[in-house]
Amino acid sequence: MDFKKFLNLIMIEQTLFALPFAYIGVLFAGGRSMSTWFWVTIALFAARTSGMSFNRVIDAKIDAKNPRTKERLIPKGEVKPFTVWIISLFFLFLLIFSSYMLNKLCFYLSFIAGAMLFAYSYFKRFSSSSHFFLGFVEACAPIGGYLAVTGEITLFPLLLGLIILTWIAGIDILYATQDMDFDKKENLKSIPAKLGKEKAVILSGLNYFFSIIFMILAGIITKRDLPYWIGIIFIGLIFIRQQQLGKNSNLCDNMKKIFKLNTYISPLLFLAIFIDIFIWG
Known about the structure:
This protein has helices at 3-10, 12-28, 34-58, 60-65, 73-76, 81-102, 104-123, 130-150, 156-176, 180-186, 191-195, 197-221, 226-247, 251-262, 265-280. The relative contact order is 0.11. The protein has one domain (3-280): Tetracycline Repressor, domain 2 (Orthogonal Bundle). α9 (156-176) packs antiparallel against α12 (197-221) and α12 packs antiparallel against α13. It is mostly helical.
């Protein structure tokens, strides 16, 4: 497999989008060590790559039937499933190793994280709560970033996890509306397939609402200053715009706009926290 196909396989843009998730945890924990930042970056990259690779190879047969995904590398025969399995396991090992380099707690929890990365692809086969399970998997990033600095479990990083869980569940519910008819046909579980588009969009909005509430609580608890609150306002406006696009009858046509807006959220939240802590503070 050449490098371009590898980047396509793992959707590198989504990995870059997810990096701030972990960095948020590091910032709130007061992490300043370059070693911590380095190994957190490696761990997040490894987790995303392993998880995406698992998803691609496990869902290959489903992807081949779906008009939206049939052009992916494995369904097209451009990459062999065995190769993707090797990539998945290699980066899973890298996740465990980088966690070991952080601290013992992260090392022990990395095995649970690995199991979750593998399990996600099977979840939608038996439960429409797969959107929330994906959010839970992504929530491990800020929790892990926080624990990488402190090395101990407290309640606050769980609040950071809830920010990401509800946000990712919200966007994934919107995303799943594209495949609503296909999911029904193939007996795959999703909230849009179960509840219909209108109710799914409402539930997505509720998740966004709670994500903002959790951001506000995190700011109050840690006594954040003006840059943080400005960032939260802009994120709230993005959430509102995404919901407006989601309610449009041509949701599939608007999905690119929704996802483009979504790419601004994690760097915006990271910058707001970074400026508040290291510059404004």
